[in-house]
């Protein structure tokens, strides 16, 4: 549920992200007072440079009293002053060279803005670490890099420093010394009021709306407020634009932004080293000080800093409150009826933290009113907030901001889009209405919708605690266990709420199952225990890792504690939207329920006086769910199981899916997909909205399923399996034989079967006449294989001989005669095969090395 709209993702290459800041410099000419700024990490991956200020007379350093006069400062991290429209920071010597995390967020945005991930108030624009340094009569802002390191005691320390110079972001003349000369005064007006990439409009939005420049005449600093450990700056910026989201006559876009500068801990939290067997977000550094005979990458997990108030009680095994509780505030803009459910989703994680020895570790609260706390702001970097967006986007996401030195999570702003309720309604209806009378209605009760909101809230908060998706969790439960009332009442649908195991589509009428939700389960508790357990004393991160490794190996092999990463289409266990340990069996139950739901769409979505838009939407949802089941099954063909291990663990990391399971998958597809699914053609429902496109609907399902199955990457793994395991492998030859029986079979083909047969020939033709291997721009062969796009040189592989042989077999086995339409169809197939084997016109290179869409092969939808 992290970070994604309801769209298909082309590729997610799993890798630890290394934040690398490019170097830059600030220049100062004798006759010009300027602040030159340059930074990276802008959305879109490009750099942006801004020069603010203009020709100015060189001024000397003034007395503090002459410059500030009787203006009362706002005391805090830096004392701040506003004098004659200019803003000054009084920077104490004690805070020079201290690292500060700078986070810029939107406060308000224009109507109609459409830039994925950055379009609503509260969403992050950028984050960066700054250090304020003094050099003679100037102060510089520098941007440290954490991509490489070496311990100060290492022989490599000086070498690393020499090749890891901190970029200079900005320079300022010292305007005055403070009264006791323990600090300096600098004018920051031009920096905050200018178009500085780190604290201004992101590059992707500038490009999207063709922004040409900042209009200083329509921009200003609204407020700068100082607090004990942070400074909050709110600005209004207007940009000249030739492509407005709503009204080009304005020629501009106006935004309100808030920039938080938060002091990082002087003593960094002890980092916890990552382990790919346990799922956590993290960050990596190339560490030259480990003593390894190579440049070694070390990676740390992202986690909040939790320490017990009473270490002695904690050591005795008692549940202890943390010194500092994790607190989330719910946006005051949230509809009041949903606030208790959002808070309940936050508080649900206390059962997870109890596994790590903490009680009351996390709490959700209603945001204070202005009367209760006039200083509170949802943009303040000291506070974590669930932000509610008035948006038609069907989504929610849970990001977090972490200390780049150690991975310590410092704050989070969960994004909650209003229209996620539409997504929840449709999924819950389609997946459970066959056994759940409470959802057979156009609009759920507030109580029902509230429980769905609570589930999503828990999932998103899990991300903000450092947990990524665990797509392998749902495989731990037997399919038939999900038909048990007693089992599901205790365990929900999966051992982890971080899986995309939505609602119980397996349970059948009469089973009596009533708990249809995912919940915080065994894996979640294990992950929190692993990531947040407190180890007293001065143990190093490496020593802690050795202790954690004992725990991990103890749980190895137990599917309840298995972590399956997101971002690969190799392993059929690691899929979104699936349930149970056997995709074929689970999907059979799911289709049986869809057959029960489809004839009742109009009845169960009835709204007096409304048109049939909802019937059409729900029919499309039925087809979408059916497609998910097909994708779950298809992943078994050419599939490999992935179990990360260390040297001291036995067994393979990668092993091919059992041959019998692959046969079962093809048998399922032949019966449930390539045999026309007439149950989808319900005339009573279709007559309400379908204007003559049902043949195309069925064709799309069938042909896309074939495209997904007859895929170069899949066949590459099948050839590899045959080379390694011989007769134990399910081979490409067996695949073609099985498919030929299902696609052609016996009997007269109807219009759906004719479409399917033509689609199959075209798929094989594409394989025969393209030289492209599976590819994705910027990805290496290893990364492609890691994500499931197994590379293969089609021109030199066994694919073409096998395809030629298969096309020849099909051509020679086609019947002759029959009625006019059937005879024409078979004659056309023979011509298509002849053209495929002997092309007479140039073949368009499809560029993917196989027919079909990459999105089908990955079978990944990212929703929330």
Automatic annotation (TrEMBL):
DUF5117 domain sequence ranges: 122-309
Record keyword Protease present: yes
Gene3D superfamilies: Collagenase (Catalytic Domain)
Record's keyword annotation contains Kinase: no
Pfam family, one: DUF5117
Record-annotated EcxA zinc-binding domain positions: 443-745
Alphabetical keyword list: Hydrolase, Metalloprotease, Protease, Signal
Signal peptide location: 1-22
Highest taxon, organism lineage: Bacteria
Domain DUF5118: 61-109
Gene Ontology MF annotations: metallopeptidase activity
PANTHER family assigned to the protein according to its UniProt record, in alphabetical order: PEPTIDASE M1A AND M12B (PTHR38478), ZINC DEPENDENT METALLOPROTEASE DOMAIN LIPOPROTEIN (PTHR38478:SF1)
The protein's name: Zinc-dependent metalloprotease
Phylogenetic lineage: Bacteria, Pseudomonadati, Bacteroidota, Sphingobacteriia, Sphingobacteriales
